[in-house]
Amino acid sequence: MALKASQEDQALLLDLQAIDTKLAQLQHRAKSLPQHATLQQLAVENSELLVTLAEQKGVLEDARLELSRVESDVAVVEARITRDSARLQASSSVKDVAALEQELAALKKRQFDLEEIELSVMERVEEQGAVVGRQADQAGALQGRMADIEGERDEAMKAIDAERNNATANRLTIAGKVPADLLALYEKQRERYGTGASHLRGGVSSASGVKLNENDMVAIRNSAPDDVLMCPDSNAILVRTSESGL
Q: Which domains does the chain have, with CATH numbers?
C-alpha cells in the first residue's frame, strides 16, 4: 500500500531537509577550516625544526665536552708547572736544575698550545650556542604562531558548534511533528541518496535541479494530494506546494 501523508506533514520535510543541508554544510565548514591546513604545514615545519635543534644541541654538547677535556689538560699542565717550578727553586743539583728547566720549557710550550686550542674551542662553543639560541627562538616563535592559529581554529569551531547545536535542536522539534512512517522513509532516502526531500517548484526538482518531463508531471497531477511521491531523478520524496506549477 502506497504511503500517504497530508500536504502539511509532507511540507515539514522541506524544513527538515533545509536543516539537514545546513548541518552538512556546517560539517564541511568544520573540516575545511583554513586553520587545519595551516596547522598541518606548521606541524611539519615544527617537527623538522625540532630535529635540527636537537642535532645542533648535540653539536654544542660535543663542543662543551671537548672544552672540558682541554680545560682539564690545561689544569694538569699548570699543576705540573707549579710543581716543577717549586722543585727548581728548591734544587741545588746542576743536573736536576737542567732537567727541570728542560721539562718546564716543554710544559710551557704544551700549555701555550693547549690554551690556543682552548680558545678555539671556546669560540666554537660560543658560536654554536648562538646557533642553538637562534633556532630555539625560531622554534618558540613557530610554536607561538601555532598556538595563535589553534586559538583561531577553536573560536571558529565554537561558532560552528553553536550553529550546529541550534540546528540540531530545531531538527528534533520538526522531526517530532512528522509522522513516524513518513520520517522513516525520509531518513532512508536521505541516507541512501544524500537527499531525503525535494521541493517541486515550477516543475523543477530542487534536489536534482532538473525539470521533470511531461509524463512525470502528468502522473504527479493525477496523484492525490496526500500521496507520497518520489522524485524520478533524485529518489527523494517529492514535496508539492503551491509553487509546484501543477
A: 7-27+179-240 (no CATH), 33-175 (1.10.287.1700)
**Per-residue CA distances from 241 to 82, 101, 202 (Å):** 109, 117, 10
Beta bridge partners of 229: 238
Q: pTM for the whole thing?
A: 0.75
Q: Do residues 171 and 20 touch, judged by C-beta distance below 8 A?
A: yes
| Helix pair 94-175, 34-90: axis angle to 10 deg | 170
Instruction: Give the phi and the psi of residue 183 in degrees, each rounded to 5.
Output: -65, -40
DSSP state, residue 213: P
How far, in Å, CA of 153 to CA of 228, rounded?
A: 44
SS (H, E, C) 175-210: HCCCCHHHHHHHHHHHHHHCCCEEEEECCEECCCCC
Query: For 5, which DSSP code?
Result: -
pLDDT tens for 152-194 read 999 999 999 999 999 999 999 999 999 999 999 999 999 999 9
Going from the C-alpha of 238 to that of each of 154, 157, 220, 235, the distances in angstroms are 39, 34, 10, 8
Nearest to 13 by CA among 177, 146, 223: 177
Per-residue model confidence as pLDDT tens digits over 79-119:
999 998 998 888 878 888 888 889 999 999 999 999 999 99
